[in-house]
C-alpha cells in the first residue's frame, strides 16, 4: 500500500510574499505584474473581488487602479524564490520527503506519519509555515498526486474544509469527485476536456469511473494513468524514468527596444550563457542552436520584421562560450537594420546526455573549458546571477526587463535588508 501524499499550496503566493515585508499591503487590493510590467500574474483576494483577472494588461486596468487604490508591484522573483526555500524548510519536519512542484506548490510524502491524525498534522504544518513566513496555505491529502491536487483545490475553494481536505475520507471524496469539473482536473487539457464532455463525462467522479481502455483510446496512456490515479493507484508505479528533454529555450521581452546589432548581441550572449548553464545542470549537450528576434507584433502600424537562423554545433556542446559564438553567427545572418526589436531568444535542439555525445575526429581536449564552465557556474551560483559575465554580455544592459515597481530583495541583498530602529 502506498504512503499518503499531501500537496501544500501557498495562497496568492506572490502577493503573500510581498505582504510579509510590507504591512501596508495587507487588506488592500494588490496585483503583481509579469516581466516588463505587462499584465497581472498574481492578485490578492481584494483585487479578485474587483473583477481583475489573471493576464489582464496593466494599461486596461489604469482606471480601476486609480478608482479603487489598487497597489501595483513588479514581479520580484528573487524574493519569491527565497521565500519558497523557507516554506519548504518549514514543512520538512512534517514529511518523510518533499518534492517541489512549482514555486508555490510542494508535494509531501507522509509515509511514517500514517498513525497520526493527518488533518491535525496538516493544520500544524500550516501553522508552522505561517509562523516562519506569514504565508497562508491550503493542504490536500490523498493516496496519489492527482487526488492530492484535487483535494488541495477543494480545500482552497470550500470553506467547510477549513484549509485542509483529506480525500482518503470516503464522504469527502464523494463530495469533491461529483462536484469538481472535469476540465479542472490536473492533467486534463482543453482538447481532452471537450472529448470527455462529448462522452458525457463532466466531473472528476465520472472520469474516475471511465473504463481504462476507453481512457487510453480518448487520451492515450496519459489519460489512462490519470484515471488510475483518480482511483488511488499512483502513476509512478507505472513510470519511474523521466523522459529525455528534446529541446530548451531562453527567451525574454525587452524593457526598451533594441536597435543595434551590438545591443542585440548583449541580450543573446546572456541568453546563450543561461542556456549553457541549463544544459550543464541537466547533464546534456546540444547539437543545434537557433537565435531569433522580432519587433512588436501588437503594433502593426510600425515596421515589422522577425529573423531567425539555426546553426549546427559541431561538436555537440554545453559550453556557454561556444553557444555565444554560435549565437553571433546566427544573429549576423538574420539581422536587419532599421527595426526596433522587442523580443529575442535562444533555442537549443538535438539534445543528448553529455556521456552519450558523439566524438568528432579532430576534437580538442575539452577538460580546461569544462573546468572553466564549472567555475563560472559556481561563482554565479554563490555570489548571484551575472556576477561573472562575458564581455559580449556587458554590464549596462539597457535592454533589461522593465521593473519599475519592484520591491526590495528583502532576504537576499544585505543592502536591502529591512532595518528596525528603536
From TrEMBL:
Reactions mediated catalytically: DNA(n) + a 2'-deoxyribonucleoside 5'-triphosphate = DNA(n+1) + diphosphate
Enzyme class: transferase
Gene3D superfamilies: 3.30.70.270, 3.40.1170.60, 5' to 3' exonuclease, C-terminal subdomain (1.10.150.20)
Domain UmuC residue range list: 5-189
Annotated protein name in UniProt: DNA-directed DNA polymerase
Family: Belongs to the DNA polymerase type-Y family.
Species name: Sphingomonas qilianensis
Domain of life: Bacteria
Keywords, sorted A to Z: DNA damage, DNA repair, SOS mutagenesis, SOS response
InterPro entries: DNA/RNA_pol_sf (IPR043502), DNA_pol_Y-fam_little_finger (IPR017961), DNA_polymerase-Y (IPR050116), DUF4113 (IPR025188), Rev_trsase/Diguanyl_cyclase (IPR043128), UmuC (IPR001126)
PROSITE patterns membership: UMUC
EC number: 2.7.7.7
Subunit (UniProt): Monomer.
Biological role: Poorly processive, error-prone DNA polymerase involved in untargeted mutagenesis. Copies undamaged DNA at stalled replication forks, which arise in vivo from mismatched or misaligned primer ends. These misaligned primers can be extended by PolIV. Exhibits no 3'-5' exonuclease (proofreading) activity. May be involved in translesional synthesis, in conjunction with the beta clamp from PolIII.
